[in-house]
Amino acid sequence: MSTSKDGNDPKGKSVETAITNTSPCVLIVENCQVDCFVTSYLLRGHNVQVIAAQGPWQALELLNAEHNVKLILSNYWMPNMTGYDLLMEVKKSPKLSHLPVVITSFDKSPEIVKKCLDGGAKDYIMKPIKYGDVPRILRSLCAFNLTESYKY
């Protein structure tokens, strides 16, 4: 990409904006602000854009509007709707069903983990999200991006 002396590309967008706009976008659905902040920080450190929703209903509103989300990272236990319920809403929507969903939770109940994975979640990660968990999230994101790039 060529740039002008002032750091702008020929079309007038700054180089920084151009680079940021090519980064994949993850929607974090999390009712705990601390968990959301930590997860956002970890993902942004890997050149991932982050959008946050404080609950499943807000997430569905964002997803049904125009978006560039490539992965949904959702807490399991939230008021009014679980991460599993959000997963089911996403999977039954023709517009959203292609999006990978990763569930996070402090709950390590084998029944809940199995239910989420059988329901179509790409992964189930124990909270708190740590630096070592980021590659698992990125694998789900990369697998999605590869399949998207080969669609006709």
TrEMBL record:
| Chain ranges of the Response regulatory domain | 25-142
Q: Which InterPro entries match?
A: ARR-like, CheY-like_superfamily, Sig_transdc_resp-reg_receiver
Q: Which GO terms describe its biological process?
A: cytokinin-activated signaling pathway; phosphorelay signal transduction system
Q: Which SMART domains match?
A: REC (SM00448)
Return the Pfam families for the record.
Response_reg
Instruction: Specify the domain of life of the species encoding this protein.
Output: Eukaryota
- Name the record gives this protein: Response regulatory domain-containing protein
